[in-house]
Write a structure and sequence with these properties.
Elements (H helix, E strand, L loop, with lengths): L2 H23 L11 H23 L7 H27 L4 H31 L2 H15 L19 H11 L2 H21 L5 H7 L10 H19 L8 H14 L10
Helix pairs in contact: 1-2, 1-10, 2-3, 2-9, 3-4, 3-6, 3-7, 3-9, 4-5, 6-7, 7-8, 7-9, 9-10
Length: 271
């Protein structure tokens, strides 16, 4: 892997990132204030700017090999968000009422923040040591809670059971044909590796130390490049929520992504 190879990779990715940013800037603000557009716009926005940071770190990975740690952590988030989006699209499109099902699935994703806050609401009282401040937080939470309640004041039944990323991947794997399976397989492998960096355990330091070697390993620039390639492919799918597949700008972006995907994985056995 040479600096020249890395510069080619980062330059092409930078061009794609800029193209996506220019595209989403064209989306009218009023269009992204409602669901499901708001959900997909948020994921595209977060993903493209995360890729922007990963690209900057990637440029310096030869001089600073442990930059791969931050890249891996960032790409785990990217893959997670994109798998959620792809899962929601597939599951809703294959239901009896796609539009209604998609809105329910999005609400289930938003419900995750509610559950986390509810589990930890009493920690606020301990941390602040201030009853008035805690009551303020509790009041705000009670208002927030209302959107997830049915007419009887109970949590909406379809919100109670959420799916993990691994369960979503397993579901998609059971439904996809061979053309989609390879992308899903790469997404799973990268997510699994990056998760061992994110969640500290026995394998964490082993994987991190591999990133500084010039040998092929599970956690390497190779893994990073694979994760970016499949992320761009899923991003392209999400952009169809806002743009016609036949539009000139989306066609140009597709060509850029296709060219990027042709980049060969750098040979990590060479300097």
């Amino acid at each position: 892997m040479s600096q020249k190879e890395i510069e080619e990779f980062t330059q092409k990715l930078d061009e794609i990132i800029k193209a996506i940013i220019y595209l989403i800037l064209e989306i009218p603000i009023e269009k992204v204030q409602k669901e499901p557009e708001h959900f997909f716009y948020s994921i595209i926005f977060k993903t493209v700017h995360t890729l922007e940071a990963v690209n900057l770190l990637s440029y310096n990975v030869l001089q600073k090999p442990f930059f791969l740690i931050s890249c891996g952590l960032s790409m785990r988030t990217v893959i997670s968000d994109l798998i959620i989006a792809e899962y929601l699209i597939f599951k809703s499109e294959n239901s009896g009422n796609p539009d209604s099902e998609l809105l329910k699935q999005i609400e289930r994703q938003y419900f995750d923040h509610y559950q986390f806050t509810k589990r930890n609401i009493n920690i606020y009282e301990t941390l602040y040591g201030d009853k008035k401040e805690f009551l303020k937080v509790k009041k705000e939470f009670n208002e927030y809670e209302k959107k997830f309640l049915d007419s009887d004041g109970n949590i909406k039944s379809y919100l109670k059971k959420g799916d993990s990323i691994f369960r979503m991947i397993k579901f998609l794997a059971s439904k996809y044909d061979k053309s989609n399976m390879q992308r899903l397989k790469i997404a799973f492998e990268c997510y699994d590796i990056f998760s061992k960096i994110e969640h500290f355990g026995e394998k964490t330091m082993e994987l991190i130390s591999q990133s500084a070697t010039q040998q092929r390993s599970k956690f390497s620039f190779e893994t990073l490049l694979y994760s970016i390639k499949i992320s761009l492919n899923i991003l392209e799918i999400l952009l169809l929520v806002f743009f016609d597949k036949k539009s000139a700008k989306l066609k140009k972006l597709s060509s850029q992504i296709e060219e990027f995907n042709k980049l060969e994985i750098p040979n990590t056995n060479s300097a």
